Amino acid sequence: MTTPGIKKDSSLEAEPSYLDFVLVPKFLVAEQADEETKKLMTTVGKICLEKDLRSQDFQCNSCGCAIGIIYGKFRSCHYDGYNYCYGCHGNDTECIPARMIHNWDFKKYPVSNRVKVFISHIENDPLLDISKLNPALYALEEVREIRLLRTQLTYLRSYIVICKTFAVEDFRRKLWPREYLYEQVHLYSITDMQEISSGVLAKTLQEAIAFARKHVRSCQHCRRNGFVCEMCKSLKPVYPFDVESTCNCDKCFTVFRTVFLNTNTVCHNCIKSIRVSNRWTHLHSVK
């Protein structure tokens, strides 16, 4: 019974049984997680089929109570495929990350209480590597667009971070706390995937790109870090973040205008490097 005049502190009450596992923040290594969390983590990118009750010995996958046939009603979790009693599965729904990745399916499905809490803790962490889980997803126009935008951001970041002004702080602030969006191209969080589908992420990236582009072109220090196109020799600099009109040599990373690109294009800078290398090799062999 609660003492009159004293408000009961709900934070001191015992937490439900499905909260008895450790959720590891993204800055901690996975080895520090408990076994249950590790299992849930390994399932993030996999679509799990519904398990047979016999494989669970007719026991709830969370609390272990008897379920099925004459024992008690149960529900299946669409995240891990296991069956749970009604006490451990409240029929709450969540988007399943694996279904997003493999089926481009953003519908919400029933999940266990434990899984619901788990997903709520990891939904903003970049755990989904599209290049490994399902690279075919880049065939979708909206996903391909996001990859292009993030590629632009990675190039722009290389200019902004070495700028002597305070532009880098404004740049980071526009995407905080999702710095991985400009540090990597293929990693996504559950929230990111949902925002790709809704179009929100594209707008966020476009705003950051517009800011960074404007700065680079107007900043005397950043502007000097442009490239001279090895194909046309024009004095007008080219920048790698202008992905619509430029491309990079995948060997020496020289930037040149795409108007000169065709199947027979050979990087002049690479040819020059090969000539110099061959010349040095010849001189040393003569000695």
From TrEMBL:
A Pfam entry, by short name: RH_dom
Swiss-Prot/TrEMBL keywords: Metal-binding, Repeat, Zinc, Zinc-finger
UniProt domain Rubicon Homology: residue ranges: 75-275
GO MF, one annotated term: zinc ion binding
UniProt-listed InterPro entries: DEF8, RH_dom
Protein name, as recorded: Pleckstrin homology domain-containing family M member 3
Species for this entry: Trichonephila clavata (Joro spider)
Originating gene: Plekhm3
